[in-house]
Each structure stands twice: as C-alpha cells, then as structure tokens.
Prior knowledge:
Blueprint: H1 72-84, H2 89-103, H3 118-141
Amino acid sequence: MSRLKIAPPPMPAEPAPEVVPEPVEAPSPAPAPKVDARPSRLSAAPPKLAQAPINLHLPSEGFVDLNFKVEPELRQRFKLEAVRRGMSNKELLEACFTVYLETFPSDEPMPTIKRPTAETLARRREKRLEREKRLERIRSRQ
C-alpha cells in the first residue's frame, strides 16, 4: 500500500497590509536672496551736520528711559511676577521702589529736581518743529 500524503486544505490568505505611500514633499525652493532697497549704512558717507537729526539730546515730553542690565533669571522672575499680578513692568517697578523707600527711609534730604519751565518746553517744541520741517525739505530734494 502506498502512502498518499494528503495536503491540508489551503488556509485563507491573510489580506496583505495596505501599503500607503508616504507623501513626497516637493523640494522647497531656495530662499530668495534678501534684497534691501536701502543702501547700506556703511557704504555711504555720513550725512553733513546740517542734515543729521539732532534730537538725541532732547528729553521726551513724558517718560524717559531707565536702562540697566540684570541677570536673565531676575528678568524672567520680574516679568512673570508682573504678569501674575496683572501689572505692567513699570507698575511693578514703581511699587517695589515705593515699598523699598517706605521700608528703608533715607536720612539724606532729597535733592530738588529742576523741571523745565513752560517757556523752555515751548522753545524745545519750536526747535523740534523747525528740525522736522528742515528734514522734510531735505528728504523732498532726494
């Protein structure tokens, strides 16, 4: 008797996993070179004194800058505290300074600060307007 090998019935084939092609991104175009319409500040000669604005020495008519360097951690803590309290940085600095002066009063008399008179302020305004007009005339010639 010969032995016949009977193959098991074929198993249903598993569906092949669906292959989804990865999207191919189009190569991004090379960034366009930056074109500055203004000439470089270093390529031109400095303006003549009559053409240069001379407003850097004049104080503003309200607030003045108060600039100083602090460590990054202090800056971050200060800003976060101002946000947490719903205050601006200026308001927090003023409040801190007020509390400091109340806590540690000074025995020294406070020096008097001379404020500009109304005439001085009017003269400064006139000079500023004259400068602006002069600059406008210079710009219109170019």
